[in-house]
Amino acid sequence: MTVDIHPIIVGTAGHVDHGKSSLVRQLTGIDPDRWQEEKERGLTIDLGFAPIKLDDGTIIGLIDVPGHERFLKNMVAGATSIDLAILVIAADDGVMPQTREHLDVLELLGVKKGIVALTKIDIVDAETIELAEEEIKELLEGGSLEGAPVYPLSSVTGQGVEEFKAALLEMARALEPRSAEGLFRMPVQRVFSLRGFGTVLTGIPLAGSVSTGDQLELVGKGLVSRIRGMHAYGHKVDVARAGHSTAINLPDIPLERAQRGDLLAVPGTLEVATRFEIELRGVGEGQPLRHGEDVHLHVGTREVVAKVFLLDQQELPAGSHGLGQLLCREPVAALAGDFALLRRLSPARTIAGGRLIGVAGRRLRRFKGQVIDHLHEKERVLTAPVDRIALLVGDAGERGMTEEQLLGRLGWTKEELGPELANAIQSGRLHRDDRSSTLFGAQSIEREVERIEKMLAGWYRKHPMSRTCPVSRFRREGAETLLSVAFRVLATNGRIELLPGGLLRDLSRPDTLSDADQEQLEAMREWLEAAGTRSRSRDEVEQQFGASGLQLLERLLEERVAVAVGPTFVWGGQSYARAIQAVSEICGSVGGELDIPSLRDRLDTSRKYLIPFLEHLDVIGVTARKGNRRILRRAEAP
């Protein structure tokens, strides 16, 4: 059976015993109180779910939350999914403490649409109703639900219920459906087991969609299971998506390992963290939020204890805004842009909340202008995709960030990331290493380019006759990929040329050799060749040609007119090539054994020159030692 679901969630809020559950029964015909204790006590203690049908048969999900202050953490677990709030206020009591706290929760969790049910009008007079309406108007003034319509009604007599229901459904129908874009993630609200099926986890997905047969994991627990089946509002469905209250059968997840507060996601897409940055707004009455205070942190359906570090002020009073960093006692799976709530440990009261703007960052220093400005920028880019990508990758510094890591930080799919990432790369704000798909911010590459250019300048000051520089001089541990991308940028801009043999040439550097230098080089080349296989040492070079001779020698070496054999000896290029050919001929073929006496006789040399040459052959991979033997690995020098 197919079911048409409008992907939004309607949720109740309000003080205990103001008639939330009774109203839900009037609207849906379903008792949202699931537990026997709730039915016996007439008190909602946990979340209840019921569907509402539109005139065309389309279903909208409704969640009923507990109103008692002792169960506010359960209320918060449900409020994280609400798109349209029903604020329930009894006409006889009016606005009560939990009314205000529930309203604070809705506002802090980003709920911007609502309707007010003024209940129990059957037990008060018209003047009391009018006074209650005025009080409600004052309560909502200046908040996100300001101007929400107020409907007086009685769940006992039915007076006003139909008018309220019609208005509610009209608002729900007009509300933009929750997007199914992004990586699938669902905060777990309830866990149970069915005989013959195994573990079932229920919740309301925040983003994305999944189908029967897909795999899901409990993030941070390493538990993965394939979806055996799914239900939404009592109907079997093949696809679960954001905005659907969904039950997912995951038989391979042990019942005892799953609990409310867990997060379901596609395996390998999301990670847990213990440190978050947050933009805060203080609410409530009494003491302000203090720097370093331990609080109950609510994110999704998760509740953990966290320490709050205020970064731009000493304390956060009600109504004020600030920036903070949270250090959680336990890992939490959340993304920048998620809403969070902070409640005091004792007495348990909501004191602040807001949006997470950073995940898993380093510890931040307080009252630093650069830190504060950067956090404001993080807050701004939450709604600017390309800017957000550039900032996230830039924050990764010289480590860079893979596309998979970026997807996990953003909560996007590859299809969503593709065009935005291409835009960022094309505009020069990001650079990508094609082999590893590692991304780097423009500033990281610019700093690496500056380092390379500075080192090049230093190299040429010490080696003025050189035209090339060894690439190995620029390498440093943990930054190989960054260096590769920086080299590519320099080469693309015509600044350097990467050459075979691990060398690079600075194309902006003119050749400074004079005619006299050229004559000296030719004389040195002939002198080296004249030595044959009884090669010259570097000391002999300096004695023959002076201190400048060693600089000229580097030019011969980089042009392969001469070859350094070990740290001491230098061979003429032609003599060296004949020696390599002799090695190849004596061995016969790759894998053949080198007869040392035969090579010594062939080269007409002595042990003084032969041993460094043999060790050099091993180093460059022409030969290899096999016990006491030396065999041919390649027939020519690299």
How would you portray this structure in words?
It is elongated, with a radius of gyration of 37 Å. Helix 14 crosses helix 15 (547-558) and helix 16 (573-587) packs antiparallel against helix 17 (596-603). It has five domains: 5-174, P-loop containing nucleotide triphosphate hydrolases (Rossmann fold); 185-265, Elongation Factor Tu (Ef-tu), domain 3 (Beta Barrel), CATH 2.40.30.10; 273-377, Elongation Factor Tu (Ef-tu), domain 3; 384-512, no CATH class; 516-632, Arc Repressor Mutant, subunit A, CATH 1.10.10.10. It contains 18 helices and 35 strands. A hairpin with a 5-residue loop joins strand 2 and strand 3. The strands form nine sheets. An eight-stranded antiparallel sheet has the order 11-10-16-7-8-15-12-13, with no helix packed on it. A six-stranded mixed sheet has the order 2-3-1-4-5-6, sandwiched between helices. The longest helix has 21 residues, at 442-462. The protein is an alpha+beta fold and 638 residues long.
The backbone outline, from C-alpha atoms, is elongated
Summing up helix and strand content along with how strands pair, one would put the structural category as alpha+beta
Number of helices: 18
Number of E-state strands: 35
The largest β sheet comes out as: 8 strands, antiparallel
What integer is the average pLDDT?
89
What is the end-to-end distance? Answer: 70 Å
